Amino acid sequence: MIFDKLKPQVVTIVSNSNLTIDERLLKICELLENHIEYYNWVGFYFKNGNKEELKLGPYVGAPTDHTIIPFGKGICGQVAVSNENFVVPDVTAQDNYIACSITVKAEIVIPIFVNGENIGQIDIDSNTPDPFTEADERFLEFVCEKVSEIL
User: Fold this and answer.
1) Is there a contact between 39 and 28 (Cβ–Cβ < 8 Å)?
2) How far is Cα 36 from Cα 40, in angstroms, rounded to an integer?
3) CA distance linking residue 74 with residue 80, whole number of Å
4) Domain named GAF: which ranges (predicted)?
5) 70 burial via Cβ count (<10 Å: 0-12, 13-18, 19+)
6) Are 105 and 129 contacting, i.e. CB atoms less than 8 angstroms apart?
7) Which of 8, 36, 58, 82 matches a 20 to 30 Å C-alpha distance to 28?
């Protein structure tokens, strides 16, 4: 399975202290986007200081206007409030979806916890309808756990 092959590469990237944290996060985005064909946009959002909003961090994929997302707005904003994974098989079926691109069909967002606090998330958009499985969730939880070790 592709996820098992990517896990050691994620660990290698995270442990490379010669790179800044943002450089490591970008390399993780590139790794996932390059090796998982239905991951078409991969990025990180982080809590913006003490504000009730998320700020876009490193990402790969089409440019986005959504550099700041208020808590509760869109899928990412909802995860900031719920502290739970959010898998969206069909973005058109979501009332509170913020469209980034007309090509996006599905989205998955997994929170990142540091000392029990939700400090950010990984956000993945797919141009493929309903591509995400439980295996994606478990793999992305692993990625978030590794990322949390350097934040």
Assistant:
1) no
2) 8
3) 10
4) 19-150
5) middle
6) yes
7) 82
Alpha helices in 17-133 (DSSP H): 21-35, 74-82
Q: Could you tell me if 108 and 136 are in contact, meaning their C-beta atoms sit under 8 angstroms apart? A: yes
**Selection from 66, 68, 38 nearest residue 51 by Cα:** 68
pLDDT tens, residue order, the chain (151 aa): 799 999 999 999 999 999 999 999 999 999 999 999 999 999 999 999 999 999 999 999 999 999 999 999 999 999 999 999 999 999 988 877 776 678 999 999 999 999 999 999 999 999 999 999 999 999 999 999 999 999 9
From the list 103, 111, 104, the residue with the least C-alpha distance to 78 is 111
Beta strands, E only, 15-149: 41-47, 53-60, 68-70, 86-88, 106-114, 117-126
Q: How many residues can be counted in the chain? A: 151
Question: Whole-angstrom Cα distance, residue 28 to residue 120?
Answer: 15
Look at residues 97, 81, 77, 101 and name the one whose alpha carbon lies nearest to residue 89.
97
